[in-house]
Amino acid sequence: MGDESKTPFKLRFYSFLLHCLARALIATCRTRIVAGEKRLDRIAENPVIFAAWHNRIFYFSVFAPKYLISRGIKLAMMSSLSKDGAIGASLGQRSGLRVVRGSAHRGGTEGFRRFYRVMKKESCSTILLPDGSRGPIYKAKMGVAMLAKLTGAPVVPISYQAERCWRVRSWDRLIIPKPFSRIAVVVGDDLAIERDADDEALERGRARIESALNEAGARAAEAIKGKN
Questions:
Q1: Domain boundaries, the chain
Q2: pTM exceeds cut of 0.90
Q3: Do residues 117 and 95 lie in contact, with contact meaning Cβ atoms separated by under 8 Å?
Q4: What is the CATH number of domain 4-226?
């Protein structure tokens, strides 16, 4: 699953550079989890679905091993079948994550099946990006809610804000914290989707996930502004 040896050398090299850059850059920053840190200590025994917006993924490549995997949380991620996805997969593996290849557009069904098996058979938590690999930005698709329904695992929204950052000219405006910035992280409350949820209930769950992620980002931004 996610065998890096099958990734072209050039893409593996790019992922290596990104991994080194992320670790070196974030090492200069000061991170504080302003809400939900105690929640993380209870996740190792009961898998959850972490949900984060696509443009936060650069920082989470460092946050995941330092604050999640170090707590004994087994973590998997989905990476698209595109070239960009191959770089993301290699980067995720370097960060200690299990990688499942697939997306909502190519290989999505098989990817979700693999995620389901990883969560149920290996008690592995997952991290998914609700706005997917193509956006639109900050608009949650149905996949996260559907996986929560199938597995019975709660969705845990997680977001952050950096005091100073660069914004990449991509569809998601990828956020890269600048050196020596303060970073505020917010871990939201569990969001449950009932196993017998119908289409209307799934849509309500999708909307709740979207709203919770935006609220977590806003709360992190307030913590940065308040300098507390």
A1: 4-226
A2: no
A3: no
A4: 3.40.1130.10
